[in-house]
Structure prediction request, 609 residues.
Amino acid sequence: MAMTITEKILAAHSGRKSVSPGDLVEVRVDLAFAHDFTAPLAIQVFEETGAEKVFNRNRIALVADHFVPNKDIASAQQAKRMREFARKHRIRHYYEVGEAGIGHVILPEKGLVVPGMVVIGADSHTCAYGALGAFSTGVGSTDLGAVMATGEIWLKVPPTIRLEYTGKRRRWVTGKDLILYTIGRIGVEGALYSTMEFAGPVVRDLPMYQRFAMTNMAVEAGAKNGIMEPDEKTLAWMKGRSGLKPRVFRGDPDAACAKVIPIDVNAIEPQVAFPSSPANDRPLSAVGKVPLDQVFIGSCTNGWLEDLRDAARILKGKKAARGLRLIVIPGSPWILKEAVKEGILETFLEAGAVIGPPCCGPCLGGHMGVLAEGERALATTNRNFVGRMGHPKSEVYLSNPYVAAASAVMGRIAGPDEL
Amino acid sequence: MHPGIFEQPETFTGRYHQMKIEGRVWKFGDDVDTDLIIPARYCNTSDGAQLARHVFADSRPDFAGTVSAGDVVVAGRNFGCGSSREHAPLALKEAGIRAVIARSFARIFYRNAFNIGLPLLESGEAVDRIRDGEEISVDLSTGKIEDRTNHQTFRTDPVPDFMRELIRTGGLVDHVKRNKLKKKTVRRSR
Prediction:
């Protein structure tokens, strides 16, 4: 039976010859992930099940990335709970402050995720790993606790919505812009319970870091997972990174999709999502004058080394506008080290930026750049709901790193061409 | 009579000692995200009682102090979208909300709510007609929703079999205990 890539991965992991959308399957999990924000509840659930051991101490990753270095006593207690659990169960992939970065950056970076895997994470942006041709989805803490105990999870096979991107990308248009545009077009419920399969020559043309940005935000359209078929770029990126054996699945050409949405990128400009939804999307030319108080460059969506390079390219020799706070947070310790070596960090410092330790930072209004009443920030993050980054009467706009960098210089939302 | 949606659980886990819910309606619009339900700054705890104090802190500051056990949230499309934080359904449940009725639910929130024993019901017609502040009763065993203020009744869409099973067995933890770990085999780590 003809199957899509998602269906093939789920069939392979549930011991079935084939699966169809709507089937309920019990799936073997290759990697389970949680962080300091979601792990404590998951640990509580794990203990409630009465399981004495985790299903496999080599297949669980616990990362300190959300409220770390701990922002207050309560967060420190939560992190301590995760740390003690990791120690007790000898969790191999436990990442402490100093070694840790943003989970969705370090897990692929360190080769913990390879094509063909099933990854379940207690974080909605777990869908990001689909860029590697893995089935990867976010769940809550109770589901994750049960996975840690059993190594399995029940899932309903999602229908696939295939998005085919064709044409030629304009200057400054990245994977982040393509996904913002797409969510703007189909809405925050446009892919509800479905797989968003990103395809077409434009996707093939994207470097890995921009592919991650796309699959990262599949959840913002309501999707169960985002996925791309592995190709030479995927395998080149994976080379030497992992001791795990990749399984390259490719969808059958005659596999049925619930919907095929062709997207011509020729006319797509860099995108800006206005408050307060990732779907409230506008092309740069329609933004108007939006003065800013803060610009944040980082997050699991755009915290890769290449994202920092892109921003540095725009900021080189320039300074952030007077009164504008520029915050830059590299996605991992390795990225931070490379940024130092390449002189990128110096560019940011010369521009007047504040550099944060590798973590999620202000993305979710935790720390390192929380907004006051009436303040406006532009961020390379993935969500801008009311109160996301601080006071309920603050506003968050979303963009790619090029636009964020140019905006920092201008003190208002702007593109690189304005500099 | 609408066929039974929720059956009385076989073992009395205590989660569903109330098959009939009666309380006040808290009405919301579309796309109510989990940051709105419980802002991240309050999620540095797993304690349900503490979380309950901050439900809807940024959008309905009167909620936390006024909500009573048995109250029901009624909302539009895509309720619970955004972050996967389980703190959201947990906080609602600990605050006293016994059911959420919406036009549709976001995927992760849907799973989380059933996993912790917060029933979710989908009913477009109920959402159309019911208003904030009205008195409502919900019978989980029949799926009947009654707006007691306006004397209107509504039906819910049937809950998928597996979700009903989760509720019957008392949530995911009980399901795992019964079906996955009952043989008490200690899984060896490879």
